[in-house]
Design a protein that fits this description.
This protein is about 75% helix and about 0% strand. By secondary structure, the protein is mainly α. Keywords: Membrane, Sugar transport, Symport, Transmembrane, Transmembrane helix, Transport.
């Protein structure tokens, strides 16, 4: 039985009735397990690469530099292309698989993509936990990447299409929240398994990724398709209407179903979505599908997400203290992402991105300044300054959790019209994975060469992206997803570029 609290969309484009039903809550809880597997892998990979038994077995050169080489710079102890390949190979696999996921999502629906992602991740977790050489380890990472690629392509779309417009921001932000939860769980597990001074510790950390993957795979079997996907694939209006009534908890869904049908009829005229997305009328969406995930990665968040324990060890903290510091930063990320969920549909996307960007910029510059003055090539920070850096990094993570973390997934998932939605989401995921791979693969080398200047480098990007939002990103809160095109037609800059052929559209939907 559907229960919840009533809401009504009061957007200019039309009135949609509905409530937050238990049906929606359960469906979205299952779907956001895709975020948990992503977050768990981010946290686990960063933790195990700082564990001495793991390094001794797979990366002995790094282990020797860390333990025995007293001449090498603090910033260069972990500089190893093989070590970064372990972390970043997942994202290269995710990049490639996201394009295959686009075809699957469009042809067969959001549910099969989520199911495929869970199954591939489950296999990768098993292989990683059983690895006896670097080849097995990296092949397991590739399977994990395929799983994440499929899940990240489908889950944000699923959440945006299931959510009532008024609460779409909060529900979609649950994906980033679940990523944060996955990171925190992984950090806590790493903190515990680090105390096991043999191969069992890191094996347990890697193998436990199978738990959220199993939940996602099993839960996907019971997920319903979205009404948007049902109409797009089968044109069964009655089935879609009944499903939407169940999702919204009300019989009065005619206005929303009419908009979905119109969008579907337009989408069926598009035979090649990747070719059509480059048309002038889709130029704003194309720019955002590239710019937003690019900016999300050059915030420097992966410095914290992937390599937090390594970074804290660079600052002079011990293995256990480094892992606990990662737990602290992960907890801050979860709390601020939850706050973002509560306020994003009230204060809007732009407000959070601009203020979150300012917070991130200030604290990155401060972190770089403290490290520049107090950390040399040898030795470490005093406890007081190490604590100060930890506090500044937590404030930086808080800014990201309020803004670019959740909104980097929310905004791309809600701005595409149905005819290019799957293609647009694939571009978003691919760009995200591409630059995640680049940052992941180059960070340790950049840390070795840039040293403290790395924080100023990422701070410059944060300043640029905040200006980009201020000038070029329109507000999208409370706009029905099938009527999102109006925000571009009314924007001071994009209205000069967007050319909508209203006569053709009217003929199609008549």
């Amino acid at each position: 039985m559907a229960v919840g609290f009533a809401i009504t969309s009061t957007s200019e484009g039309g009135n949609y009735n509905g409530r937050i039903t238990s049906f929606v809550v359960f469906s979205c809880m299952m779907a956001t397990m895709g975020g948990v597997i992503f977050g768990y892998d981010i946290g686990i990979s960063g933790g195990v690469t700082s564990m001495e038994p793991f390094l001794r077995k797979f990366f002995p050169d790094v282990y020797v530099k860390m333990k025995e080489d007293t001449k090498i710079s603090n910033y260069c102890k972990f500089d190893s292309q093989l070590l970064t390949s372990f972390t970043s190979s997942l994202y290269l696999a995710g990049l490639v698989s996201s394009f295959f996921a686009s075809s699957l999502t469009q042809a067969f629906g959001r549910k099969p993509s989520i199911l495929s992602g869970g199954a591939a991740f489950l296999a990768g977790a098993a292989l990683g936990g059983a690895a006896h050489n670097v080849l097995m380890l990296i092949f397991g990472r590739i399977l994990l990447g395929i799983g994440v690629g499929f899940a990240n392509q489908a889950v944000p779309l699923y959440l945006s299409e299931m959510a009532p417009p008024k609460w779409r921001g909060a529900i979609n932000n649950s994906f980033q929240l679940s990523i944060g939860i996955g990171i925190l769980i992984a950090n806590l597990i790493n903190y515990g398994t680090e105390k096991i001074k043999d191969d069992r510790g890191w094996r347990i950390s890697l193998a436990l990724a199978a738990v959220p993957a199993f939940i996602l795979t099993l839960g996907a079997l019971f997920l319903p398709e979205t009404p948007n996907s049902v109409i797009q694939r089968s044109n069964d209006h009655e089935k879609a209407k009944k499903l939407l009534q169940r999702v919204r908890g009300t019989e009065d869904v005619q206005a929303e179903i009419d908009d979905i049908i119109k969008a579907s009829e337009i989408s069926k005229t598009i035979k090649h979505p990747f070719k059509n997305i480059i048309q002038t009328k889709y130029r704003p969406q194309l720019v955002m599908s590239i710019a937003i995930p690019f900016f999300q990665q050059v915030t420097g968040i992966n410095v914290i997400a992937f390599y937090a324990p390594i970074l804290f060890r660079t600052l002079g903290l011990g293995e256990s203290a480094s892992l606990m510091s990662a737990v602290v930063t992960g907890s801050v990320g979860i709390c601020t992402t939850f706050i973002s969920m509560l306020i994003v549909d009230k204060v809007g996307r732009r407000f959070l991105l601009i203020n979150g960007g300012a917070c991130m910029f200030v604290n990155q510059i401060l972190v770089g300044g403290v490290i520049a003055v107090k950390l040399g090539d040898h030795g470490g920070l005093s406890k007081g300054y190490a604590f100060l850096v930890l506090v500044l990094i937590c404030l930086y993570v808080a800014g990201f959790g309020l803004s670019w973390g959740p909104l980097g997934w929310l905004i791309p998932s809600e701005i595409f019209p149905l005819e290019i939605r799957s293609a647009g989401q694939s571009i978003t995921v691919a760009v995200n994975f591409l630059f995640t791979f680049i940052v992941g693969q180059t960070f340790l080398t950049m840390l070795c060469h840039f040293k403290y200047g790395l924080f100023f480098f990422f701070g410059g990007w944060v300043a640029l992206m905040t200006a980009f939002v201020f000038l070029l990103l329109p507000e999208t809160k409370n706009i029905p997803i099938e009527q999102m095109d109006k925000v571009w037609r009314e924007h001071w800059f994009w209205k000069k570029i967007v050319q909508v052929d209203n006569e053709v559209t009217d003929k199609i939907v008549a």
